[in-house]
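Take a careful look at the sequence and tokenised backbone pasted below. I need to know what the token row says about the fold.
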Amino acid sequence: MPPKKKNFLILVLIFILAFLAANLDYPKYFNRAADFLNTKLSLENKGFKFPHFWNLPFKLGLDLQGGVHLIYKADLSDIPQKEKEDSLYGLKDVIERRVNLFGVQEPVIQVQGEKLIVELAGVVDPQKAIEEIGKTPFLEFRERKSEQEIKKIEEKKKEVEGKSFEEIQKIDNWQLAFENPFKSTPLTGKYLKKAELAFDPNTNKPMVSLQFNDEGAKIFEELTKKNIGKPLAIYIDNQLISAPVVQEAISGGKAQITGSFSIKEARDLARNLNAGALPVPIKLISQQTIGPTLGKMALAKSLKASIFGFLAIILFMVLFYRLPGLIAGLALSFYVIFLLALFKLIPVTITLAGIGGLILSIGMAVDANILIFSRMREELKEGKTFSLALEEGFRRAWPSIRDGNFTTLIVALILFCFGTSFIKGFAFTLIFGILMSMFSAIIVTKSLLRVFVGTRLEKIKSLWV
């Protein structure tokens, strides 16, 4: 394929992607246009209409959306040293389940030493969330109800199937359809001494080993004796964790939970069981509430600063590098459009620190363009043709661009691996920004500059030098 045709196809693809990404970033105008055409052409009456573009919201962090930032300290004084880490991470899993049930979308929960940091974005009632989090995890074993009771539940489920809630309420004993098929037993987490990851000696498959205390061993033996061939369900905070089938009566207070577990799944289950069994109280030591109004103000100010900074960069590039600077401005616009679309699709939680990482990555993208244009100028001053100067400029600038971005990428990865939530947000957006900036400089800018090869504009040196 001729180089010009290939470059043309690349540009067409870039512009199509930019159009789609821009509408994903801000679908308001596309949707308005679709509504206008549907109304003007009366398309709805003809059985066809222009659809709306996918309206996917940005995922905002605590500092931009408002919410609550909590720090808890776990009391591990009664926990053996080797079990402290598992207890903390078990508590983390339990708290995560609780706040999800409470209605908080994607909470950020981190373990730092003996502290638990909980960030709940968009929480309207922080006090209720605090109350839910502060409860001690509760582990219990439940046995299956009688066959007669199960049959009644199944029949009632079929009876209410496909009906609205108003219709369901008119059915006699409709609540029966929503009853749990398992009922509580005396065996709870207070009788469990330990749960740990183990491996089947015959198949080498991962499983979970349980150890009860003396009183728990007696209760467990009685339960397994009367439930042979039936599942014995394990619940933490009223949420089903596992329901292994009892193969035989088990004495001695030891049992195994087997199944198609991965090592991670078995380890997590053991950790959750221990969290339900161990009384690990947590104390709230810090609370910071950010109102939604303050979050909106922070977002508005950060966006304003970003826009002014971006325009200042483009102005500098145009004044100093003339036409290449204008092309770099267009490439940077594509860069921002693509990056924001990626943030929506992944999705990335955008915080003030994350916006800082985005702005810094724009600086990295500008730096790459400056290196390229400076090399191009040198090549043109030596009397080389525009086409040759363009290729040489990119070839010679690439090692500096690669090394500069690679070292920044390493630092960003270190920050992401070892930093706290806000630092992670900064590092994450910086990493994506760096990768996208390299695409912008090497692919987009180069493709746009190649358009001028063989045209009259390439001969006007004042535009390039």
Observations:
- The first helix runs from residue 3 to 25.
- The radius of gyration is 31 Å.
- The domain at 291-463 is CATH 1.20.1640.10 (Multidrug efflux transporter AcrB transmembrane fold).
- The mean pLDDT is 85.
